[in-house]
Amino acid sequence: MKALRYEGQNKVVFTELPVPVVSDGEVLVAVEVCGLCGSDILKIDSDLKGRDVPLGHEVAGRIELVGPGVKGFKVGDRVVVAHHVPCGDCHYCRKSSPSMCREFKQTNLDPGGFAEYVRVSARHVENVMFKLPTKVQYSQGALTEPLACVLRNIRRVDLREGDTAVVVGLGFIGLLTTLALMKKGVTVVGLDTDPARVKQASKLGLEHGYTGRENRTEAVISQLTTGRGADVLIVTAGPASLIPSRLTWVRDGGIVNLFAGFAKQPPAQLDLDQLYHREISVLTSYSPALEDLKEAHRMIVAGEVDLSPFTKSTFPLDGLDEALRQVRGRETVKAMIIPRKYGAAH
């Protein structure tokens, strides 16, 4: 089968690999679509040579083979599958921190979603594989995992109808967060230095979108909250050095929410005395729990969220370089890889 294989920093090769063999409880999925995630780009940009580096985890496809003992799935089923599975029994899982489970990152799809086929382990089949009705396009189904990441983050910061949130960064995750918050009745102020991203957010229904050059952000937040400040500042992108100066946007007792990685950036210096006296919490969220995957799948199947704006930029498996160029150049907000040359309509 054709696949992409990581061979070192900024070196991903289009190659031939054996089709994985399935065992008891496992299935082989023919990958129809796999989203290119920011974490994939981070891996590609990093020197991880000598390590097993699976690429691609936002997977949707159809079952090609079913191993002995599989229940509830059959050959031909359209499915979505997540890449990590927590154990459910350890201290982290019992404390509602499944993404910190030591087994969580040890589980993965074989060899990763940037391939014509992936082997789905028995634990994945049992916990994180879901059927996709024919009415739902593969490309939208493939976004189940990132939507679940957003849902868990919103759940952790406990935003509710009538609350106010500032979303910094209107890339894919920022826009997806904005959509999910607006659906909950949260007032959102969105910020991105790129006017095109602000315009895209406005097309999705965001009323208060700014680049920061308007010098109105703080005044708008104050007006929307009668001077309190936002309940949550959600940082999905941008330099870490800007976060300390944005504490004034957050109300007393509010939350600074880090919903992005800050690799290769200098550490930010936060005023701990201000955090203490104003009771501002710093809260992060990294990956979804099983309940969030189930809810994201339900929402997509029910048509409660329109993900079509994020599925239009598609690239063949051997077109990863162009996909990376467009994402890095901010020409597209989301790239979708189509591993199978003659796959179904997307």
Question: Which word captures the global form?
Answer: globular
How far apart the termini lie comes to 21 Å
> Which band does the percent of strand residues land in?
15-25%
Percent in helix:
25-40%
Write down the overall mean pLDDT: 95
SSE string, helices as H and strands as E: EEEHEEHEHEHHEHEHEHEEHEHEHE
Number of strands: 15
From the 3D coordinates, which CATH architecture of the largest domain would you assign?
Alpha-Beta Complex
Whole-angstrom Rg: 20 Å
How many structural domains can be distinguished in the coordinates? 2
- The number of helices is 11
Structural class: alpha/beta
What does the largest sheet look like? 7 strands, mixed
The parts where pLDDT drops under 50 for at least 5 residues are 342-346
Here the CATH topology of the largest domain equals Quinone Oxidoreductase, Chain A, domain 1
Name the CATH homologous superfamily of the largest domain: Medium-chain alcohol dehydrogenases, catalytic domain
In the CATH hierarchy, what is the class of the largest domain?
Answer: Alpha Beta
Q: Which key features would you list for this structure?
A:
single chain; 346 residues; alpha/beta; Quinone Oxidoreductase, Chain A, domain 1; Rossmann fold; 2 domains; seven-stranded mixed beta sheet; six-stranded parallel beta sheet; 15 strands; 23% strand; globular; disordered C terminus
